[in-house]
């Protein structure tokens, strides 16, 4: 398996980056120019084990590589890049638009909430946008997501969730009339299916902190096989993927709730608050208390 062409394709944590997920939110939103200019307007082919991209290009050109096919495209358009899809971009320097990145837990939630309409997030696709009311709604939704993401406000988490649901429905409507604009998607091998199943199990069980051996048993494989699969496709061990989900939820609760450190530790399956504090500090460099203070300080209006 290590000689597979995918083995040489880097796995990024975020658009163009190997750095950790930078936010306690389940999504990340930024303008395409602010990130792309740092990479000379060229994001080389890569994939994400547990992220979904939705790009809205208002104007400008992009050379899109998606699942081994090349496309020269002009805005306005929307692009959907599911987890594990190989993709790369070369943007024109006058590019205008945004990229919304959804973390795996949010993609899982949307799948449960929207069912069939969430399929739009699992299909590598692009949609040229003709001047229509639907295209205007899509552009407005992305602008609202960007505005809500950038400013602290009461109910921000719920508002972002509602806006992303609406975005997903609009993408599903775009996909309905003519089917995918891209070439037929690459068939997923058993490894990809097993990784997706493991991520779904993590989402369902992470608060109980099952052992890797228990996860492997549920998946019908050995723990060594599960670890090897995670390292090959996600560049992390099975335990690291579980810990990343725990850490993300801890950050969310420290940022958006008034739960005590002890309550958060208990809700995440830690037998003692001290164990949680050590886990959190080892992974972030901050104690839970210091992280919460920093988040609240950064969110305070000047």
Automatic annotation (TrEMBL):
MF GO annotations? DNA-binding transcription factor activity; sequence-specific DNA binding
Task: One Pfam family, please name it.
Answer: AraC_binding
Organism's domain of life? Answer: Bacteria
What SMART domains does the annotation carry? HTH_ARAC
All residue ranges annotated as the HTH araC/xylS-type domain in the record = 196-294
Keyword DNA-binding among record annotations: yes
The record's listing under SUPFAM superfamilies reads:
Homeodomain-like, Regulatory protein AraC
**What InterPro entries does the annotation carry?**
AraC-bd, Cupin_HpaA-like_N, Homeodomain-like_sf, HTH-like, HTH_AraC, RmlC-like_jellyroll, Tscrpt_reg_AraC-type_HTH
- Assigned keywords, A-Z: Activator, DNA-binding, Transcription, Transcription regulation
Query: Membrane spanning segments where?
Result: none
What is this protein's name? Helix-turn-helix domain-containing protein
Organism of provenance: Billgrantia kenyensis
